[in-house]
Amino acid sequence: xxxxxxxxxxxxxxxxxxxxxxxxxxxxxxxxxxxxxxxxxxxxx
Length: 45
Description:
Blueprint: H1 20-29, E1 34-37, E2 40-43
Antiparallel strand pairs: 1-2
């Protein structure tokens, strides 16, 4: 199992993301190019 990773610059004026739902919500609202959640890779193609 890979170690957890926290990117503190991930959020835009919000608390640190703690759940996948929060990460996806932030991805959809911002100009992020890529979101990686465990085995999932989401991009804006």
